[in-house]
Write a structure and sequence with these properties.
Largest sheet: none
Number of helices: 9
Oligomer: single chain
Strand content: under 5%
Structural class: mainly alpha
Length: 237
């Protein structure tokens, strides 16, 4: 829910500041922050879900390769690997698992099922590589287990690269957040020195104009920084 957690905190903080400063502006700001915080949480959850799905595909490749080396037929090995990996019990992967199990158990077009499953949600794109491996093995007689091992290794390497890039971007992201909070520190410092910046910003036309302009510039700076970070991570803006 968008109202849970940080969203409720933003609303409560706005209400408290509104009472302290005798102004409705902090309350309105808290209300505006609720859907924004909710959207950020949804994006973060979607990214985490995609990473879990990518890890599940890598694990499926390794399990399927092990089943093939144990001497199981490819279709039976795929069904066993999907069930062993727990895909049917996962809410995020159950739809893809249904497609794969149907094709594996009833003699369907496995490569097409793999491609269709890979399009069901973000993070399952690695199933397209499994489909290519399967197609080559069936048409050309290549070793499917070895190809799956290479696909699993490539997916793990991609995950490691993503984690390493995220660690390198942690510093710039923290710096951007700190710079965004500097105006708040300035207001607190001004209040501590005996000035009353909230009275000027919230109760005079010039102060309100400055507050709105500063808020818009702050949002633009954060959006620009976020776009740069997403571009560096290879994610869509």
């Amino acid at each position: 829910m968008r109202w849970a957690g940080p969203g409720l905190f933003a609303l409560a903080a706005g209400a408290v500041l509104g009472v302290v400063t005798h102004s409705p502006v902090p309350v309105l700001a808290g209300l505006v922050a609720v859907p924004l915080v909710g959207r950020m949480r949804e994006r973060r959850a979607a990214r985490a879900g995609a990473e879990r799905a990518a890890a599940a595909v890598a694990a499926l490749c390794a399990t399927l390769a092990a089943e093939l080396r144990a001497g199981r037929p490819p279709h039976l090995a795929l069904a066993e690997a999907v069930e062993t990996a727990g895909w049917p019990e996962s809410a995020e992967l159950a739809g893809a698992a249904g497609l794969l199990l149907s094709a594996a158990r009833f003699g369907g077009d496995v490569p097409q099922a793999l491609r269709s499953a890979g399009r069901r949600r973000e993070g399952l794109h690695g199933l397209a590589a499994v489909a290519a491996c399967w197609q080559v093995a069936v048409d050309g007689g290549a070793g499917l287990a070895a190809a799956l091992d290479r696909a699993a290794g490539a997916l793990r390497a991609e995950a490691d690269q993503r984690d390493d890039l995220r660690a390198q971007l942690a510093g710039p992201r923290s710096t951007a957040v700190l710079l965004a909070l500097l105006p708040v520190f300035g207001l607190v410092l001004g209040s501590g020195l005996g000035a009353d910046p909230s009275a000027v910003l919230l109760h005079t036309p010039a102060g309100l104009a400055c507050l709105v302009a500063g808020g818009l510039l702050e949002c633009a700076g954060l959006a620009w920084t976020g776009r740069i970070i997403r571009a560096a991570e290879g994610r869509p803006s």
